[in-house]
Write a structure and sequence with these properties.
Number of strands: 11
Largest sheet: 7 strands, mixed
Strand content: over 45%
Mean pLDDT: 95
Radius of gyration: 13 Å
Number of helices: 0
Distance between the termini: 40 Å
Order of helices and strands: EEEEEEEEEEE
Helix content: under 10%
Low-confidence stretches: none
Length: 124
Amino acid sequence: QVHLVESGGDLVQTGGSLRLSCAASGRTFSRYAMGWFRQGPGKEREFVAAISWSTTTTYYADSVQGRFTISRDNTMNTVYLQMNSLKPEDTAVYYCAAAAYSTGLRRDLSYDYWGQGTQVTVSS
């Protein structure tokens, strides 16, 4: 069982930066691949970024490639999403998720546990 709690969401201006954190409980955090998804107003949930359990492999949506960076600290049971050059279209509730297997990490159905989300709002 993995319990996930996101934090770091805020209101920021276009071009600004935020770092989201996702703290996980459970002793087996390091065995899970982790992902970030988001759901904007009136939109479906979409993949943002993912990282393998070993931190050697990362994945990004085209829309955030080069602006967002996912990382994890297995000693702290935490995964991060550094978001730079934010745009109004990045406005969404951001969710972190844990997957027991490092396959299909761009699909939400691949994930076993989800956090409650944190709101990111980018003003124009």
